[in-house]
Amino acid sequence: MEQVLNLNNEVVKMRKDVKKAKALIIRKLTRHIAELKSKKGKAEEVEKNQRRVGRLLEEIHEMKTLKPDEVTKAALQKNLNFEQVCKNPKSTTSDRATARIASHPLISKKIIDIKAAIKAFKDERKKSLKGKKAPQLGKIDKDTLKPTDERKGECTSEETEKSTDKCAEVSCDDINETKEIVPTKE
Length: 186
Hints:
By secondary structure, this protein is mostly helical. The protein is 66% helix and 2% strand. A two-stranded antiparallel sheet has the order 1-2.
């Protein structure tokens, strides 16, 4: 039996990894904040570091409120790259936090694997649909007066005689064409 891809299960499996990555990133950012606070230099540099500390603190608070499923779904839907998101002046703290988590190596590897599985699943599905023939419309089984795709309009003279009892006269040529068969009243 073929393995079926259930995307929801994959998102649920990613929860643990997203939480782990969040913890690692938050620890790294707190160390970086401590370094920035302890730096000394010109007034401009200190002010610049303080603005950066404030921005990083906002990101940390936003990361704590993000749900793991939201991060995974956002990473699957878009190609999130932290550098690109940070360069965008319209990006929010939530966007930056999501991109920072999604671009963590632990998460990005698994997201790539899931995307590859999704692509393989879609390709397999397309192949299986191409292999099956679509039912041909307009062909009618004379005995049951139901559309059929198996017989492909082939009929014998015996079947034609049987069908005259049930409906108006139908020839083999009429079955192959898309015509409406009207039952007669007896």
